[in-house]
């Protein structure tokens, strides 16, 4: 009787293990196809965005741009964001291959463990890079709209923009390289997820630090910068409305009095005529849209693993949803830059029309 009970328990455990394996495999297949779609979207968007930036006529003709405008000053950050999306798209292609191929793929072989660790490093590092890049975008708009005094001219210089580009990559690489020395966690091929990822966590505090520090720093920078921008825009708009009211009252009073002399000049310069405000209004909208995308896609990806106490939980249905949002955010960023920035959008549209017209004429 005891043997029968023991055999029944073993059979039940085996059946549970088989069902769990099949469920994990089904989830991994869904993740693999998601990787493929978003990898293609992110790759094409990144290439299109970088192509649009570097083929603009203003860049090819320096004499047409005697001074650095808003779009050209923010271009390095846009390019950096596109490059992170491009790297992530390539990594997703490898992840899609291993996830769909299953355990039998070349990335799972011990001889290719260095390549697998490098892929896991890139996958793990790009998230902090993207987060800090959004903080850099917010800081750039703060310097361009709020810190307009000549005392802060250096904050709007190319050197400052270069620092805003370099710091996210440096900090993320500095944090992500530690697992190569078995500090915090280990990179490698994860048999459960069928992809190059985290295989062992030595110190959960290391994971918590990476999840919390970058997101808190980025969110704090975004909140502070955009709050200051909103206050500045509201103040300037109120002053413009006051000038409009004064002008309207003056014109009404002059209409009821015989014209004896020319009226004194009135201040007619509003926020729309100031060089720091209209130049790059479309760029600011693009940055705000990127910020909204960041909040929607990155926050759940950062919070869920902390609540689940493990990144491996991302192979569950809720985890897959969170990962999909994160991947969508990385893939959609270059498309938002191209479609919402008027200069780039008009350039791409003009190039497509030129190509189309030349095709039909030939």
From TrEMBL:
Compartments annotated for it: namely: Cell membrane
The entry's keywords: Cell membrane, G-protein coupled receptor, Membrane, Receptor, Transducer, Transmembrane, Transmembrane helix
**Boundaries of every G-protein coupled receptors family 1 profile domain copy:** 45-337
The membrane spanning regions, by residue number, are 29-54, 74-97, 161-181, 213-235, 282-303, 323-344
Gene Ontology cellular component annotations, sorted alphabetically: plasma membrane
The keyword Hydrolase appears for this protein = no
Major localization listed first in the record, in broad terms = membrane
One Gene Ontology MF term:
G protein-coupled receptor activity
**Cited Gene3D superfamilies:** Rhodopsin 7-helix transmembrane proteins (1.20.1070.10)
Q: Which CDD domains match?
A: 7tm_classA_rhodopsin-like
Q: How does it sit in the membrane?
A: Multi-pass membrane protein
What Pfam families has UniProt attached to this entry? 7tm_1
Kindly give the SUPFAM superfamilies that the UniProt entry links to this protein: Family A G protein-coupled receptor-like
Q: Say if the entry is tagged with keyword Ribosomal protein.
A: no
Q: Could you tell me which InterPro entries the record lists for this protein?
A: GPCR_Rhodpsn, GPCR_Rhodpsn_7TM
> This protein is called what?
G-protein coupled receptors family 1 profile domain-containing protein
Species of origin: Hypsibius exemplaris (Freshwater tardigrade)
């Amino acid at each position: 009787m005891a043997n029968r009970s023991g055999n029944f328990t073993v059979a039940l455990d085996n059946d549970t293990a088989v069902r769990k394996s099949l469920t994990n495999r089904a989830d991994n297949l869904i993740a693999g196809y998601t990787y493929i779609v978003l990898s293609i979207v992110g790759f094409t968007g990144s290439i299109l965005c970088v192509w649009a930036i570097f083929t603009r006529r203003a860049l090819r003709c320096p004499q047409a741009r005697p001074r650095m405008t808003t779009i050209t000053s923010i271009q390095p950050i846009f390019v950096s964001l596109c490059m992170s999306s491009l790297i992530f798209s390539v990594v997703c292609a490898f992840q899609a291959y291993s996830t769909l191929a299953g355990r039998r793929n070349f990335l799972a072989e011990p001889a290719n463990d260095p390549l697998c660790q490098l892929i896991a490093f890139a996958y793990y590092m790009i998230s902090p890079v993207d987060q800090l890049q959004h903080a850099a975008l917010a800081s750039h708009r703060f310097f361009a709209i709020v810190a307009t005094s000549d005392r802060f001219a250096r904050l709007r210089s190319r050197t400052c923009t270069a620092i805003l580009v370099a710091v996210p990559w440096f900090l993320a690489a500095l944090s992500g390289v530690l697992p190569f020395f078995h500090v915090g966690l280990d990179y490698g091929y994860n048999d459960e997820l069928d992809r190059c990822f985290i295989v062992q966590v030595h110190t959960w505090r290391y994971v918590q630090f990476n999840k919390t520090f970058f997101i808190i720093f980025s969110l704090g920078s975004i909140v502070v910068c955009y709050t200051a921008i909103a206050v500045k825009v509201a103040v300037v708009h109120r002053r413009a409305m006051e000038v409009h009211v004064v002008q309207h009252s003056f014109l009404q009073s002059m209409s009821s009095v015989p014209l004896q002399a020319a009226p004194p000049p009135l201040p007619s310069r509003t926020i729309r005529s100031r060089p720091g405000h209209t130049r790059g209004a479309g760029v600011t909208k693009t940055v705000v849209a990127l910020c909204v995308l960041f909040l929607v896609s990155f926050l759940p990806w950062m919070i869920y693993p902390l609540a689940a106490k493990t990144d491996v939980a991302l192979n569950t249905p809720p985890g897959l949803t969170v990962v999909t949002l994160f991947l969508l955010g990385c893939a959609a960023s270059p498309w938002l830059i191209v479609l919402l920035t008027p200069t780039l959008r008009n350039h791409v549209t003009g190039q497509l029309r030129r190509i189309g017209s030349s095709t039909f004429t030939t």
